[in-house]
Design goal:
This protein is mainly beta. The protein has a domain of 263 residues: Alpha/Beta hydrolase fold, catalytic domain (Rossmann fold, 3-Layer(aba) Sandwich), CATH 3.40.50. Strands 29-30-32-31-33-34-35-36 form an eight-stranded mixed β-sheet, with helices on both faces. Strands 1-2-3-4 form a four-stranded antiparallel β-sheet, with no helix packed on it. A four-stranded antiparallel β-sheet has the order 5-6-7-8, with no helix packed on it. The longest helix is centred in the C-terminal third of the chain and has 19 residues. The two termini are 16 Å apart. It holds the Pfam family Peptidase_S9. Keywords: Aminopeptidase, Hydrolase, Protease, Serine protease. GO terms for molecular function: aminopeptidase activity; serine-type endopeptidase activity. This is Dipeptidyl aminopeptidase/acylaminoacyl peptidase.
Length: 645
């Protein structure tokens, strides 16, 4: 067997953006390296027979960022975005299913944001910002780069590319709306368009709207304001009436996770209510896919697993079709609806493209990480336990490699997921972050809890953390740790905790509530909820978690009692803080604030800032450093995890 190394973790590849050809015979997808070695990312396009009858083949070299493949209506060629002409500036390209040289279709200054081949084989919908004007270029040459809020902002606009003439014309009817998504009605009719009021998503109001656009005339029909953070629109038809569904955050609170909303597209007049089709469900929607002539399909997170559902047009409810072990996302469907594909992962199998009928079974098409089969991994167990108030919870336990429960107790590291509206599904837990299997190969037991607030158990489960992050959510985690101690798995004197984003918040929160942990990892974590509302890209949405923003009047404010910074004086646990310098989701100021507080109270800690990185780290050398540094940190404070090995 081969030993797991940091290089093995970051030098692998992952499949992205699978899409089934309209005729259902082929699945195209991108393959990208995990660790970025150059200034700009690279990825290659691959295509595989949907029935697995032939091995996947590489369509592009992967020397540029070739991504987001979309099939032509006749299934004979692929449109895709690539920055091969100018690195960092994607343009639209087309390549034959048989391979060969790709044809560049645009040379738009600033590049394109998205594209969609239309039923009319001569047209492609393209989303792109306006090209710089002479005034823009003059100001740039004079270094007049003052930023005035709301001025000189590059709005993405809907455009139609005529493949015959090369003309790229804008659809005028949407005005100064920032276009973010477009999907065509399955019969080749009008386009559904999602737009924002401003390119930054407007972190104060997040006003998004849904429109129907006739690609021939440019006529626009407004369907009104969507629910928060809408995405993934899809068409469906019943009794001759067309509807649009989309995913969005459930109102009135921005906490509670995703729901499917439906609106009837009227022939004339104003649109009606945007109705929630997932009220009362104990699973959570994560993806939608429209089907020609049939109701749409959807992916749902179901506890530790994932399921395919189909919309019942009469009941206006989703019904289960097929359940898959572990994780799946990126649902794509053939025109007839007879073949689906997803990116899926199970306990010991990394993410790969799988395809088959909606009712299963799905077969694996890609094999991006065969080298991982040569490594012995820790045993991964499903956990089910009750919170102190009786709520049923789930999670995962990974035992040290080569060990069983009978060999315990072990040093235990608890890794909390982000979000909080995310989850630890029963997938292969190896990534460029300090992941479960990475720590298990070093001799640690790893607890991966799914506390309330997360995905996979319905709206009510997720909404319980509104204005109450760190409360019952924390006791849910603590209850799981105590259970593993009672069962002889965890050594109570060698406990560690860590996570990234919301998981980083929970680690920072935990060590302000108890001194039971001997070491902590705070990755891109929140230390002050009020400051996050002011500076993070989530804006006012973060107040749904923290409970307030700070501009309500003189404090103390509700978010003060939920911010780790308020409990810094109680921290005695050694802390490793990791943060990206260019993080806009959780800005670096959050880590700096926490670091200064720990310095003030003379708490042992290490503060590491990674240049050029955002909320997740992409550069290979930084990923290697994170893996080595976190394992060394826990080793320093928890001791040798397996002295007799």
């Amino acid at each position: 067997m081969t030993e797991a190394t940091p290089q093995m973790v970051v030098d692998g590849a992952v499949p992205l953006h699978p899409v089934i050809s309209p005729d259902g015979r082929w699945v195209a997808y991108a393959v990208a390296p995990i660790g970025m070695r150059e200034k700009h990312p690279v990825s290659a396009l691959w295509v595989a027979a949907a029935d697995g009858s032939s091995p996947p083949r590489k369509l592009t070299a992967g020397t540029a960022n070739d991504s987001v493949p979309r099939w032509a209506p006749d299934s004979a060629s692929l449109f895709f975005a690539s920055d091969r002409r100018e690195r960092g500036v994607p343009q639209l390209h087309r390549i034959s299913l048989d391979g060969g040289e790709a044809e560049a279709l645009t040379a738009w200054k600033g590049g394109i944001s998205d594209h969609l081949p239309l039923g009319d084989a001569h047209l492609v919908a393209v989303i792109a910002a306006d090209e710089p004007t002479e005034e823009d270029e003059r100001r740039e040459s004079e270094r007049d780069d003052a930023k005035v809020w709301g001025e000189r902002v590059p709005y993405d606009r809907l455009r139609l590319l005529d493949l015959g003439t090369g003309e790229l014309r804008v659809v005028d009817g949407l005005g100064d709306r920032h276009v973010v998504e477009v999907v065509q009605r399955p019969d080749g009719g009008p386009l559904a368009v999602l737009s924002w009021a401003a390119p930054d998503g407007d972190p104060v109001s997040f006003a998004s709207e849904l429109h129907v656009v006739d690609p021939e005339t440019g006529k626009v029909q407004d369907l009104g304001r969507t629910e928060l953070q809408a995405f993934s629109p899809a068409w469906w038809n019943t009794d001759g009436a067309w509807h649009l569904i989309y995913l969005a955050v459930t109102p009135p609170s921005p906490v509670g996770g995703l729901a499917v909303f439906d609106v009837t597209v009227p022939e004339t007049g104003a649109a009606g209510e945007h109705r929630n089709l997932t009220i009362g469900m104990t699973v959570c929607p994560s993806g939608l896919a429209q089907v020609t002539g049939s109701p749409p399909l959807a992916l749902f997170a179901d506890g530790l697993d994932t399921a395919i559902y189909r919309l019942d047009p009469e009941a206006r409810r989703f019904q289960p079709v097929f359940s898959m072990d572990g994780f799946a996302d990126s649902l794509t469907v053939s025109r007839s609806g007879e073949v689906v594909a997803v990116v899926a992962s199970t306990s010991y199998e990394p993410k790969n493209v799988h395809a088959g009928p909606p009712a299963g079974p799905l077969i694996r098409l890609s094999d991006t990480r065969p080298e991982l089969r040569q490594v012995r991994w820790g045993t991964q167990e499903r956990l089910s336990y009750k919170a102190s108030d009786g709520l049923v919870l789930d999670g995962l336990l990974i035992l040290p490699v080569g060990r069983s429960r009978d060999d315990g107790p072990f040093p235990l590291i608890t890794l909390v997921h982000g979000g909080p509206y995310h989850r630890h599904p029963d997938q292969f837990m190896l990534s460029a972050n300090p992941s479960g299997q990475w720590l298990a190969t070093a001799g640690y037991a790893v607890f991966l809890p799914n506390p309330r607030g997360g995905e996979g158990h319905g709206h009510d489960f997720a909404a319980t953390v509104a204005g109450a992050v760190g409360m019952e959510e924390w006791t849910d985690i603590l209850g799981g740790i105590d259970l593993l101690i009672a069962e002889g798995v965890a050594d109570p004197d060698r406990l560690g905790i860590g996570g990234g984003s919301h998981g980083g918040f929970m680690a920072a929160w935990a060590i302000g509530q108890t001194n039971r942990f001997k070491a902590a990892l705070v990755g891109a974590g929140i230390s002050d909820w009020g400051m996050l509302v002011a500076t993070g890209e989530g804006g006012i949405l973060e107040a749904g978690l923290g409970g307030s923003v700070g501009w309500e009047g003189p404090g103390p404010h509700p978010h003060d009692r939920l911010s780790p910074i308020s409990f810094a004086s109680k921290i005695r646990t050694p802390v490793l803080i990791l943060h990206g310098e260019n993080d806009t989701n959780v800005p670096l100021a959050q880590a700096t604030f926490f670091h200064r507080a720990l310095r003030h109270f003379d708490v042992e800690h290490e503060f590491v800032v990674y240049p050029r990185e955002g909320h997740s780290f992409r550069e290979r050398n930084h990923q290697l450093d994170v893996l080595r540094r976190t394992r060394a940190w826990f080793g320093r404070w928890l001791g040798d995890p397996a002295p007799d090995r």
